[in-house]
Amino acid sequence: MTPTDLDLGAFAEVLNGPVYVVTVEAGCERSGCLVGFASQCSIRPPRFVVWLSRENHTYRVARGATHLAVHVLDRGRQPLAELFGGETGDEVDKFARVDWRPGADGSPVLTGARAWFVGRIETRLDGGDHEGFLLAPTEVCAPARGEPASMRYTDVQEIDPGHPA
């Protein structure tokens, strides 16, 4: 078996990482999606990487963008996760269904998020069927203390993806 034939599925089954809603605006088009492949990747300088599926509408909009907004949802925000994870921007204007405002650079910021940040896209990374967007934070809104737990993978694993697999 070659390394490209190996599947991480069994390993990934034990993981229960955070999920995020990533939003973007480029030109006159907005998009957003639920992502599970994202993480802080540097402390100094602060950097965060978001991996977007090449099949996703958000990916296509993000290719023309300078910034992305990354949102943390509380576990009680399942309808918001279902909208951004189970619908595609190719068919639905998700922003007509949610409260949002433009960030300092114009990125759509969801007002119902627990916490969020906007990051300038520093570079893009090839990751196979996903592309990584390395972000340098430009605007941050941290959560108030004592809020509910953040949404995790097991909270959204039953959502059918809005874009083709």
From TrEMBL:
Q: Which UniProt keywords apply?
A: Oxidoreductase
Matching InterPro entries: Flavin_Rdtase-like_dom, NADH-dep_flavin_reductase, Split_barrel_FMN-bd
Where would you find the membrane-spanning parts of this chain? none
- Oxidoreductase as UniProt keyword: yes
Flavin reductase like domain boundaries = 12-160
Gene3D superfamilies assigned: Electron Transport, Fmn-binding Protein, Chain A
Write down the Pfam families for this protein, in alphabetical order: Flavin_Reduct (PF01613)
Protein name from the UniProt record: Flavin reductase (DIM6/NTAB) family NADH-FMN oxidoreductase RutF
Provenance organism: Streptomyces avidinii
